[in-house]
Specification:
Radius of gyration: 25 Å
Low-confidence stretches: 1-34, 418-430
Structural class: alpha/beta
Number of domains: 3
């Protein structure tokens, strides 16, 4: 799991296990409402999405590292799509397209943090209305229920555990996700069901870079792919006898770049390095065994195709039912669109829009690009100058999918959800100084490639300690106002107890108006460590004004108030944190201390015993809580 930022000023407990909850949304009794499958159609659907999975690192696609025996098993028992493409190299946008069958402009989630339009039907809403039991088990925050994909699911399990400093983590292990999915599956075998499982392991950082033992990022990326594939295998085994009646489909949401086209990670560029994804599936209605489909398809085709295989009607979609390809036929030629608005939202650069048609792929940018992808699948040679008429024709068609005028207005699609932006930053999503458009328009991301790559490397988690500090200082030499770089350098220096310098960087980050309170929390931690607790409390109160429902801010205020002898205020602040998150164990421990300082020993003991009941039996923090209870009983 990723390391959380050290923002609890006084940590009384070390790492604690966070709970996972299920959101039940109008669940039904399966026996009374379960629909009947039509003859020759699948009865159930299991969709597995693996974040950041490149097609060329899957055995069925020719990779020889032995990373994916479970995915290969599915491909051998059904079909694989050799030319499947994401409509965006961004987690939320791509998943929303899978579940709605629409391009990002049609569902509204054009970047992370941008919710799906509530009026757009989804695969889950359609199947729910048909009487399916529906459940989703989510591994990372970009797919949090607040972004709109929970509609139609009876159960949407997306609660992340807390880290050692009390902050909610932003991802959880695939094993935990599949454990929950298997538990739900065991209780819902009676009726028709749709089960979606999301796995996050291949996402950066790959494994623990601090203990890499000389293994390269790609080797560790493959290790995480093996881990995710192993969880797919557990899921297949857990289906047991219902597997024969189940469509099983595994897809990647986007790929990952390891320096191709100068990119590190994903989300900025729209080359096939980050758009080409695996799509393998097997089950009733798929009579081919081990077939490779070479016609190009897009993830927007997923929902219409699955509804056809289930015999449950249609969905208003940009995508098409590709069942004819599965049956050995063909589809009429069509364009496939893709985009990334991350350059605009994160940096103020021009967004990128792409169109694939036949042998050609063109990218709309301040300096357009065009590639002959039949002869040049790696997109190494821009042939725009050789075919200007072709490029102009495709540029006009791109505007039909997304008008060029939108590229001038990043504020129209930027979220104001500070807490959500903070959590995405913790997962490695980049944000830098937002450049303003000039008289000639917005910057071409190609002209900012080196800066984007350096930021990508920093947020990937691959750099640690002094290497990370040096990289951040280099970014700030070239981009002195970059608030994310100041914030991250402040984090590094805080870890090293260099509080005075860290304080300066947090202060600069605050002036950059980041969409989060992380800089305030870091500044407050420095001020407290330097003995300026009044200043620390003032900083936390500003953070509370920005995010009044942030339990970490409330808990820190409570700790300072308790230390200052204001027990009643401390109890109010810590209780406020626990109302937002009852499983915030550090806050509950400090609430017990505040009660004790106020002379309310019974309340203190009750809070401590409540905490003890919530901790796992093997939690290393239990002895500390037991010592507190023993002291209160004397």
């Amino acid at each position: 799991m990723r390391k959380a930022a050290p923002y609890i000023l006084v940590v009384m407990l070390a790492a604690v296990a966070g709970g996972v909850f299920l959101r039940y949304r109008g669940g039904r009794e399966a026996a009374s409402t379960a629909p009947v499958a039509r003859a020759g159609t699948a009865r159930h659907l299991v969709l597995v999405t693996i974040d950041t999975l490149r097609a060329d690192h899957v055995g069925a696609y020719g990779y020889r590292a032995g990373t994916t025996p479970s995915l290969d098993r599915i491909a051998q028992g059904g079909v694989r799509f050799d030319r499947a493409y994401a409509p965006a190299p961004i987690t939320l946008a791509s998943h929303a397209s899978m579940l709605t069958g629409r391009y990002p402009a049609g569902h509204g989630a054009r970047d992370n943090l941008m919710p799906v339009n509530a009026s757009v039907p989804t695969l889950a809403t359609v199947l729910h209305d048909q009487g399916f039991q529906t459940a989703a088990f989510i591994a990372a925050f970009p797919l949090d229920h607040r972004f709109g994909l929970s509609r139609g699911f009876d159960v949407y399990s997306d609660r992340m555990p807390r880290g050692p400093e009390g902050k909610l983590l932003n991802e959880r292990p695939g094993r935990q996700v599949v454990d929950e999915a298997l538990g739900w599956l065991e209780a819902h075998r009676g009726g028709r069901f749709f089960l979606w499982v999301h796995l996050y392991e291949p996402h950066a950082p790959y494994g623990d870079p601090a203990h890499a033992a000389g293994r390269s990022p790609i080797e560790r990326y493959d290790d995480e792919i093996r881990t995710a594939d192993g969880q797919v295998g557990r899921l297949l085994d857990g289906l047991g006898p219902v597997l024969a009646d189940t469509i099983v489909i595994v897809v990647g949401d986007h790929g990952e770049a390891f320096g191709e086209h100068g990119e590190i990670g994903h989300s900025i560029f729209v080359y096939d390095t980050t758009l080409h994804v695996p799509w393998v599936m097997m089950g009733p209605g798929i009579t081919a065994r081990g077939a490779a489909i070479t016609d190009p398809v897009c993830l927007i085709d997923l929902a219409p195709t699955l509804l056809a295989l289930l015999g449950t009607g249609k969905i208003d979609a940009d995508g098409v039912n590709v069942r004819p390809l599965i049956d050995g036929g063909h589809l009429p030629a069509r364009d496939l669109y893709a985009e990334s608005f991350a350059p605009l939202v994160d940096f103020g650069w021009s967004p990128l829009r792409a169109l694939r048609s036949g042998a050609w792929k063109t990218i709309a940018a301040p300096r357009p690009e065009m590639y002959d992808i039949e002869r040049d699948p790696n997109e190494t040679t821009d042939v725009t100058a050789l075919h200007p008429d072709v490029q102009k024709k495709f540029a006009d068609r791109i505007d039909r999918y997304s008008p060029a005028e939108l590229a001038q207005s990043p504020d129209a699609i930027v979220t104001s959800d500070r807490e959500a932006a903070t959590r995405l930053r913790a997962l490695g999503y980049v944000q830098g100084t937002r450049e303003k458009a000039t008289a000639t328009g917005r910057a071409d991301p190609k002209d900012r490639r080196e800066l984007a790559a350096r930021m990508g490397l920093v947020v990937s988690g691959e750099l640690q300690g002094k290497a990370l500090e040096d990289a951040l200082r280099a970014i700030l030499r070239d981009d002195p106002g970059n608030p994310q770089a100041h914030l991250r350098l402040g984090d590094c220096l805080l870890d090293q107890a260099q509080w005075a310098e860290a304080e300066r960087h947090f202060s600069v980050a605050i002036t950059g108006d980041l969409p989060s309170v992380d800089a305030y929390l870091g500044l407050a931690a420095c001020q407290s460590a330097l003995g300026r607790r009044d200043a620390s409390e003032q900083t936390l109160r500003k953070a509370h004004e920005l995010e009044p429902d942030n339990p970490v801010v409330s808990a820190n205020l409570g700790i300072l108030e308790s230390q200052a002898g204001r027990a009643d205020q401390a109890i109010r602040s810590l209780t406020e944190a626990l109302v937002v998150d009852p499983d915030f164990h550090e806050a509950r421990f400090n609430l017990a201390l505040a009660y004790a300082r106020a002379g309310r020993r019974q309340d203190a003991e009750r809070a401590a015993r409540d905490l003890l009941s919530r901790l796992p039996a093997d939690a290393p923090q239990r002895p500390e809580v037991e010592r507190l209870i023993a002291a209160l009983g004397r």
